[in-house]
């Protein structure tokens, strides 16, 4: 392998670890603050319920402390996942829930960019933004080609 290929593999592995770290930190933060994500249940998918109030859109700004930005990002992500249109097709339901999940990672990465000067964290956050946005585009394209969720 060439050095550039090895470096690319290392960067990819570092980003994957970073995504896991972000998710672990977000989960720990949510647990510490009493927030627990619960996806839609079968009964929630079949019977309309009163929808929770929509949180305001996520805006990354130094007007709020970092912890509050993370809480905002989690609230928007959880709401998006809970409101994802589900039709019982695993492929469709996976995609519709993963899009707000990935957007949550983008929002958290944007938040940390406002508060860190650490070059490794900045590089990781920029990579997360790029990769997660690309994956969101792939998922949107998949939904356009499979509106009913049938992956066949």
UniProtKB/TrEMBL annotation:
Keyword line: Signal
Pfam families, per database record: DUF305 (PF03713)
Region (Disordered) location: 36-56
Signal peptide positions on this chain: 1-32
Keyword Cell inner membrane: no
Protein origin, superkingdom: Bacteria
InterPro entries in the record: DUF305_CopM-like (IPR005183), Ferritin-like (IPR012347)
Low complexity: bias regions: 40-52
DUF305 domain boundaries: 91-146
Designated name of the protein: DUF305 family protein family protein
Species: Paralcaligenes ureilyticus
Upper taxonomic lineage: Bacteria, Pseudomonadati, Pseudomonadota, Betaproteobacteria, Burkholderiales
């Amino acid at each position: 392998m060439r050095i550039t290929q090895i470096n690319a593999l290392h960067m990819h592995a570092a980003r994957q670890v970073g995504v896991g770290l972000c998710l672990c930190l977000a989960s720990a933060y949510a647990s510490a603050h009493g927030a627990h994500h619960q996806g839609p249940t079968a009964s929630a998918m079949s019977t309309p319920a009163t929808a929770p109030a929509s949180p305001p859109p996520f805006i990354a700004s130094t007007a709020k402390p970092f912890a509050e930005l993370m809480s905002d990002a989690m609230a928007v992500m959880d709401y998006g996942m809970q409101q994802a249109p589900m039709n019982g097709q695993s492929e469709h339901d996976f995609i519709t829930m993963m899009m707000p999940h990935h957007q949550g990672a983008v929002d958290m990465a944007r938040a940390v960019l406002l508060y860190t000067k650490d070059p490794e964290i900045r590089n990781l956050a920029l990579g997360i933004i790029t990769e997660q946005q690309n994956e969101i585009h792939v998922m949107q394209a998949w939904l356009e080609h499979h509106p009913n969720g049938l992956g066949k």
